[in-house]
Amino acid sequence: MTKIMADHSIFQSEAYLKDRTAFYYMVFNQTLPSTQHASDGKHYVISKPEGHYPTWIWNDDFDQRAIHDLVSDLKAMQVQKLTCKQALYDELRPYFECSGLFKMGAYYLSEVNDFCRVPGEMIVATPIYLNLVAQWWYEARIEMANVQEVSKTAARQEAKDLIASGNLYLWLDQDQCPCCMAHIQKCGDLVKFGHVFTAKEKRQKGYAKALIASLSEDCIAKAYCPVLYTDLAYSASNKAYEKVGFQLSHILNHVSIREETV
């Protein structure tokens, strides 16, 4: 296994930078001193954070020998969960038993599209909205695929943390009624959108698109590139993001792996 540091030249290579918007968590992992990085210095990077978080793998086009090196590194690092490009997943399948496959779309935005927006305003969430945000996040976790549900107590604590970050935003309609929320997390010049949720009674009315568009414009004005990940199974929400201006850069596969047994 060839360990590398977070400042290795491969992170500045043309091939890596071209894919960078799809690998926000790898960029984020570079800021964590506990993250393990391994690479052949040219074709791939393995980024394994501490704890039970998934390992992220970036790869360029490579030959079969590089596949063998990558597989050896994954085994040496005892990787159990990983996220990678769809094509790489197909290459890895002969070497591992794979389970729990989850396909997600990696999107980025360079310019917000023009479209008719519902009236209202974007605000930063404050503690007066704690009960509402906690309930929304509890409901969101129930709706998510391949994500463990949380208790209302845990959802409330996460809601507190989201509000305390100062990066949770709400959309208020013309009657000042909260309709939806979205959270942003910044790393370098990238800003990841997440925790997007619309109240059930407010859905399919354009509120989420209005919030995401306004928040995206604010981020772009500050020289950030908005990125997000979606469940490809939810075509309606994906189309909503695309209407705002988000473009699909890669299909990524999240999967659990273990060495094949004879």
Helix/strand-derived class?
alpha+beta
> Taking all residues together, what is the mean pLDDT?
94
Determine the strand fraction and express it as a percent band.
25-35%
Distance between the termini: 24 Å
Largest beta-sheet details: 12 strands, mixed
From the alpha carbons, calculate the radius of gyration and give it in angstroms. 20 Å
> Order of SSEs, N→C?
EHHEEEHEHEEHHEEEHEHE
Low-confidence stretches: none
Q: Please report the number of helical segments.
A: 8
Helix proportion of residues, in percent?
Answer: 25-40%
Count the strands?
12
Task: List the domain count as a whole number.
Answer: 2
Tell me what the structure shows.
One of its GO terms (molecular function) is acyltransferase activity, transferring groups other than amino-acyl groups. It comes from Candidatus Fimiplasma intestinipullorum. InterPro entries: Acyl_CoA_acyltransferase (IPR016181), GCN5-like_dom (IPR013653). Strands 1-2-3-4-5-12-6-11-10-9-8-7 form a 12-stranded mixed β-sheet, sandwiched between helices. The chain is of the alpha+beta class. The radius of gyration is 20 Å and the shape is globular. A hairpin with a 5-residue loop joins strand 8 (168-172) and strand 9 (178-187). It has 8 helices and 12 strands. The protein starts with a strand and ends with a strand. The protein folds into 2 domains: 3-105 and 252-259, Aminopeptidase (3-Layer(aba) Sandwich), CATH 3.40.630; 121-245, Aminopeptidase. The longest helix has 15 residues, at 207-221. Helix 5 (130-143) crosses helix 6 and helix 7 packs across helix 8 (235-244).
